[in-house]
Design brief:
Blueprint lengths: L1 E20 L2 H7 L4 H11 L7 E5 L5 E6 L5 E6 L8 H11 L6 E15 L2
Antiparallel strand pairs: 1-4, 1-5, 2-3, 3-4
Helix pairs in contact: 1-2
């Protein structure tokens, strides 16, 4: 018998800014996401009202996000998925450890779904 349990919520991650752009498409392209894929990601985000964080996985497995800044621009960021946190405060603490030599960063928030599967027999 196989059983699985799902839990969902939000995960908070440190994100280091590479560059800022005026549009989410330009920010994704700056991170080496193909323009057509960037347009697909942005169009898919329109389903969710006020999408301020867009996620992409680059060829080679590097995760990146683009975040809407308070100024209305889009920050293209490297994100550290291995440092997922339950609270934004914990992610902010980890971000502080990663910031060096004048780098800037944000705490990214993404919806997460965790599945635990167990099997008998």
């Amino acid at each position: 018998m196989n059983t699985s349990a799902r839990s969902s919520g939000h995960g908070y991650f440190p994100a280091i800014v590479c560059v800022e752009r005026d549009s989410p498409i330009d920010a994704l392209v700056a991170l080496c996401v193909a323009r057509d894929e960037a347009m697909d990601i942005v169009a898919a985000s329109w389903v969710a009202a006020e999408s301020s964080c867009l996620f992409a996985m680059l060829d080679g497995g590097r995760p990146v996000v683009v975040l809407r800044t308070q100024e209305g621009r889009w920050a293209a960021c490297n994100v550290f998925l291995s440092q997922v946190c339950v609270t934004s405060q914990e992610a902010d603490r980890r971000l502080g450890k990663l910031l060096k030599r004048g780098r800037r960063g944000y705490v990214a928030c993404l919806a997460v779904c965790i599945t635990d599967a167990a099997g008998d027999g």
